[in-house]
Design goal:
The complex is a heterodimer of chains A (214) and B (229). Chain A has 214 residues and is α+β, with helices and mostly antiparallel strands. Chain A is 31% helix and 29% strand. With 229 residues, chain B is of the alpha+beta class. The chains are: A alpha+beta (214), B alpha+beta (229).
């Protein structure tokens, strides 16, 4: 009797399980994962409008028109590579060092810095020959030193190589003394480039050129 | 003679039917292409990096302003649930068994190698980068097996393409699990009144890590999936 009831329970569980499986297969085939359109949904009405808005050639032209004009820089932070490009042509490929992703907290606990290279689209704001390094607060905090009140105490010469290209917010594409670390993620967010590559990039990249970092 | 007339008539009908099918298919493809391009146009107008998961080409394109920054090849693709041919998603989160963690720099013990050049630091002598121990987040620290959760109930599982008997057996186990668990999850989400879909992608190990590196919360991903389930 007890044995029979065990079989019955097992059978019921099996039947329930199989029913749920069948229901799952049925629902997967029937319902759409897009039944609740989000703000990013391009299907439905919007898509219909889009379809009637222009043909593929026009759309391709519109997308193509958005691509950077002239020379631009692409930086792959995963592989630590810099590509100087013009259209689809790569003019120069260079090994670089980009952000370490490390964190530093001010001992007072008021500020935290994350040393990532900023991703997205930027542009060359300025170009500097023989740049000086204006040490930011984090450099003093990291060394356990007091942050100077005098601006002149922040300036250090010869640390950034022969050239620098500013991409805004204090981030630079500059040279390095630590050539052995090229290809590794070791910086505080700046992009370090070897001497020859840096000179080529500096000479061939006008101010205003796009810098795409991913 | 009557036989030949009938034959000719049938032949004409068949040709017309086939050409109508081809025309309809071309129109459908053309609409899909326009929809894909229109969706990409909205993404390319912004300064953000975006991703196109093209299941027809079996590629993931990392793009900005319409320019392909990098293409990652897909070794295998499996999907669950019905879907739109073209659909834009926003990444809600990433989940991995072992997630990379940022190193906290302790000012007193700061590693000299990681610092920007110091006045006292002499130019480094050439050395093999592999021999330098660096505490930083690098590509090798990224997981190659993880899940990407999107805003609209879509879950993408990414895993590396790896050989060997053990990995082969593991792959079979994962496949069995896929066909058992997906219907259950579908029912569960249906009870919760939410949409559910799943994609399983197999990439080269380095590409899988590179995808994890590049994609982050809020990333826009345009999925083009012309195949029927």
């Amino acid at each position: 009797m007890l044995r029979n009831s065990k079989y019955i329970i097992l059978s019921v569980i099996l039947v329930l399980f199989l029913s749920l499986e069948c229901l799952g297969y049925y629902l997967a085939g029937r319902s759409s994962i897009n039944t609740e359109p989000s703000s990013g949904n391009v299907s439905g009405q919007k898509a219909g409008k889009a379809v009637s808005n222009g043909n593929s050639t026009t759309l391709k032209k519109k997308i193509s028109a958005l691509s950077p004009k002239g020379v631009y820089i692409v930086i792959d932070t995963a592989r630590n590579r810099l590509y100087l490009k013009k259209g689809d042509v790569t003019l120069r490929e260079a090994v670089i060092s980009s952000g370490s992703g490390n964190m530093l907290t001010d001992p007072s606990g008021n500020r935290t810095w994350v040393f990532d290279t900023p991703r997205g689209e930027h542009s060359v704001r300025s170009k500097i020959e023989n740049p000086d390094w204006i040490k930011p607060d984090w450099a003093f905090v990291e060394e356990g030193e007091k942050i100077p009140s005098n601006y002149g105490d922040r300036i250090e010469s010869g640390m950034l190589g022969d050239y620098a290209l500013s991409i805004g917010n204090g981030y630079l594409i500059h040279g390095t003394l630590y050539k052995r670390l090229l290809g590794r993620n070791v910086t505080h967010g700046c992009i370090r480039v070897g001497d020859e590559d840096l000179e080529y990039v500096f000479r061939n990249t006008p101010i205003g050129s796009k810098v795409i970092i991913f | 003679m009557r036989f030949w007339k009938t034959f000719l008539l049938i032949h004409v009908f068949v040709v017309l039917f086939v050409s109508a099918e081809v025309h309809s298919e071309t129109l459908k493809n053309s609409d899909e292409e326009r929809l894909l391009l229109q969706s990409e146009l909205t993404l390319a107008q912004k300064t953000q990096i975006y991703f196109i998961l093209n299941l027809e080409d079996r590629k993931i394109y990392i793009k900005a302003r319409g320019v392909v920054l990098r293409g990652l090849g897909l070794k295998a693709v499996k999907f669950w649930g019905s879907h739109d041919k073209v659909k834009l998603y926003t990444l809600a989160g990433k989940a991995a068994f072992s997630e990379p963690r940022r190193e906290e720099i302790i000012p007193e013990n700061a590693n000299k190698d990681k610092k920007d050049p110091q006045p006292s630091a002499a130019p480094a002598t050439p050395a093999t980068p592999a021999t330098v121990d660096i505490k930083a987040l690098e590509l090798e620290d990224m997981p190659s097996s993880y899940r990407l959760k999107f805003d609209n109930g879509l879950v993408i599982s990414v895993r590396p393409d790896s050989g060997g008997i053990i990995n082969g057996l593991y792959s079979v186990a994962r496949s069995i699990n896929w066909y058992i668990s997906q219907p259950m999850l579908t029912v569960w989400y249906a009870i919760k009144n939410g949409p559910y879909g799943a994609l399983n992608l197999v990439l080269d190990e380095t590409d899988a890590r590179a995808l994890y590196w590049s994609i982050h919360e809020g990333s826009r991903v345009l999925i083009y999936n012309p195949q029927d389930q």
